Structures are given as structure tokens and as C-alpha cells.
Amino acid sequence: MHPSAFGIVSDEIQKPKVHHMSDPIYTPPEKWTWEVESGGRFASINRPIAGPTADKDLPVGKHPFQLYSLATPNGVKVTMLFEELLAAGVADAEYDAWLINIGEGEQFGSGFVGANPNSKIPALVDRSGDTPLRVFESGSILIHLAEKFGMFLPSQGPARTEVMNWLMWQMGSAPFLGGGFGHFYAYAPEKYEYPINRYAMESKRQLDVLDRELADKAFIAGDNYSIADMAIWPWYGQLCLGRLYSAAEFLDVESYANVMAWAKKIDTRPATLRGRMVNRTFGEPELQLHERHDAGDFDTQTQDKIGPPDES
């Protein structure tokens, strides 16, 4: 499956040729049934049922935290936080990051379903205590780690509430950007004007929300960098930097000057770059670290150093 199917980056996606609403109209049946693949780049892994399709245990490394993920925007949220914690000197935040290839259906293995019954990356198993603890949904993982180490989330009061406000905003808003705009603009088997316009309008409204908030704040919840920024940036920051859906020009992201400045500022953080590299299987080989088990892996285990030779 092409890397762009993972909801991330592709400079290869062509601008869509849209169909207008004079095209055939779908009349829903009385009761929907799953008969054929829906088409598009996720057709081979989409299904209307949950649960495992194969028996497959998850690997376990040496560190207290075992992350099972892929460098989609939701996966990058968590690796950004891990790398920020380690950069701040929190040695107990060491982690193993194992690649889950969602294009191959690895999220439906029995071990992964045990870690996340919703079969979505990322999933975390916290083995720092006496009993392994599963943590799933990216927002839940961010809160768990921030509270555990007392960083990037205020412990109480209005400042904590504001961070939580924006974290929940991202969790509720991004599906309109990804599952809505991204799907119909970049992944759907055919391009139709109505859904693209509908979700482009909503995506631009969300960018305007961020732009207005960032007019007089360094970060989305105030003066301090927080898990709210780490949640929002992989989606909206990367969109503005031209790394998502090849849609920067289409959405006129340059018109959101405050969001652009915020996106560029976070992009310069060393932990952001490392977070983007972990479990990455697309793009420049030097930015692909398929698995991360030690800080030294960034220097020795990227695909430009260990990948197959170029056959061209």
C-alpha cells in the first residue's frame, strides 16, 4: 500500500478532478449490508466488525514503555512527547517503539487487539509497574505520560483546564480534517465536489479557530508548550507545512499567519524531528526509523544506513 494511505504525506497526490452533483445519486437501502469493498486506499483493511483476524503476539523490549505505532499524525503525537520527556532528562521515559504496518492489517493481530480493542494505532503498554497497563487512544496516552512524569500538563487549576480544552478540541476536530477532508480530497476512489467543499470549509474554519487563538499566545494553551500542542501539531501544523494531503495550496494555509508561525516554531524543536522519524516508513530514508529501541538508533538505524540498496 502506498505510504500516503496512512494519512500522512505525499507530494505525489494529484489535485483532485472533482465531479459535480449531476453524477449518479446513491439511494440507501432499507438495511445496509457489507457486500463489496468500498474502494479507495483503505479498502483492503476496512471492515464493519471488530476483533482479531490472526493470532500474533506483540514483541516486548527492554524499556518500561512499549509503544506499538506508525508515524501517522496520531502516532507522531506520542513519539513527540516521549522524545520531549527524554530531552528534558527524564530517563524513566525510555521506550521501545514497534512498527505496526496498518496497510498489512497488523492492527488486527490478537496481541494488538489485546492492547487496543479498537485496532487503531497508537497503543501503549506501560510496564513500569507490577502489572502491565494498556493505554490506548492517543489523547489518553498523552495524558497518562504527562501525569506520570509531571510535565507538559499542569497539575491543577485553570492552566490544566485550558490544556485539556485544547486536547479535547483536537480529538474532536481532527476527524473532520482527516476522515472528512483528507479522505474525500486525497483517498476516495472518485472526487466529488460536495464532500470536498463541505470538509474544506470545516477544515478552514478550524484553522481560523487556531489562528485567532494563536494571535497573542506563544502556544495554544498559553505561554508553555504542552500536550495540547503535541496533539494538534501533527495534524494542523504538518498540514500548514505541506506534509499532509498535498493540500496546503488548496486550503490557502499561508493565510493563517499565526498558525504558520506556531507550526514552524514547533517544527524546529529537536524532539519534534525525532518524534516524526519514529515508526516512519515513507519519505526520505534518513528520516525513517522503523523501530526505536535506543537513543542511538537515530544515528545508526535509519533506512539510509540499514535499508536495502537502491536498485535504480
How are the secondary structure elements laid out?
Elements: E1 18-19, E2 65-69, H1 73-87, E3 95-99, H2 110-115, E4 123-126, E5 133-136, H3 138-149, H4 157-187, E6 191-192, H5 193-213, H6 227-240, H7 257-267, H8 270-277, H9 297-300, H10 303-306
Parallel strand pairs: 1-6, 2-3
Antiparallel strand pairs: 2-4, 4-5
Helix pairs in contact: 1-3, 1-6, 1-8, 4-5, 4-6, 6-7
Number of E-state strands: 6
Structural class comes to: alpha/beta
The CATH superfamily of the largest domain turns out to be Glutaredoxin
Task: Output the CATH class name of the largest domain.
Answer: Alpha Beta
The helix count comes to: 10
* Low-pLDDT regions: 1-7, 9-16
Rg, Å, rounded: 20 Å
Would you kindly provide a written description of the structure presented here, covering whatever features stand out?
This protein has 312 residues and is an alpha/beta fold. It has helices at 73-87, 110-115, 138-149, 157-187, 193-213, 227-240, 257-267, 270-277, 297-300, 303-306, and strands at 18-19, 65-69, 95-99, 123-126, 133-136, 191-192. The protein has two domains: 38-152 and 271-304, Glutaredoxin (3-Layer(aba) Sandwich); 157-268, Up-down Bundle (Glutathione S-transferase Yfyf (Class Pi), Chain A, domain 2), CATH 1.20.1050. The chain has ten helices and six strands. The strands form two sheets. Strands 3-2-4-5 form a four-stranded mixed beta sheet. Strands 1-6 form a two-stranded parallel sheet. Helix 1 links the parallel strand 2 and strand 3. The longest helix has 31 residues, at 157-187. 38% of the residues are buried. The model is unreliable at 1-7 and 9-16 (pLDDT under 50).
